[in-house]
Amino acid sequence: MASTPIVVPSGKSVSYQPLVPGDKEGSCYLCGAYGTGTAKKKVIKATFTDQSWAKSPTSDMVCDYCTWALSYKFDTRLYSFYGTESSLEALSRQRIREVLLQGPSAAPYIMIIAVSGQKWLHFKAQVGMSLSDWVLMFEERKMRFRPQEFSTLLEPVERLYQTFTKDEIASGEYQSHKMIAHGIDKWEADEELVSPHRGSRLLELVLFVAQKGETG
Ligand SMILES: [Zn+2]
Question: How far is the CA of 126 from the centre of ligand 1 (A)?
Fold first, then answer.
């Protein structure tokens, strides 16, 4: 079994060790999937702070996949990931934007957007089964929305982001001299599209990936 290299956001190609099948069989304490695994006490320390996320809390084993991911603590917490049955990609912020705009390419899939880079997300995520919805983890929050909703909000946000800061767009507290520089009519038209989403997770996600210079 050879491991498949994954290109990480720095551009580096990283090879990972293949899965090592464990000697136990059952439901995974963490993700709940049935299969082979390793004794929980060998994989998870008592200090592990995410016990409340366990999908099979009475199980005493952790599956081969979760054991593998936990062994790459740095990478699997730091990076955002998009995975399908045939591929796994570590995503830069720009690449998250592209993938979200395109919509899921195949189901089932898993999409994890790491914000702090310090939290375990893989076993908290839900597998997306439909191409008409995005189901993803944005840090520890589960989100579900249609790809169209994302692109419809991204467009006005990126137009505003040419002039305003992400904080101004998130709060709705714009500096007046910038409103004049941007053009009051243009600002008003886009603010009208953004304001119903203020305070929402979707706007937070859109702002997380919004880029300058993407719109005219
Ligand atoms: Zn598992």
Answer: 12
CB 144 within 8 Å of CB 111: no
Please give the distance, rounded to the nearest whole angstrom, from the Cα atom of residue 54 to the centre of ligand 1: 9
Q: What count of other Cβ atoms lies within 10 Å of the Cβ of residue 134?
A: 21
Tell me the angle at which helices 201-209 and 93-102 cross, rounded to the nearest 10 degrees: 120
- The rounded Å distance from CA 144 to ligand 1 centre is 22
pLDDT tens-digit profile of 65-102? Answer: 999 999 888 788 889 999 999 888 999 999 999 999 99
| 147-197 confidence digits (pLDDT tens) | 999 999 999 999 999 999 999 999 999 999 999 999 999 999 999 999 999
Ligand 1 center from residue 60 Cα (angstroms): 12
Tally Cβ neighbours within 10 Å of residue 91: 22
Q: How far is the CA of 29 from the centre of ligand 1 (A)?
A: 7
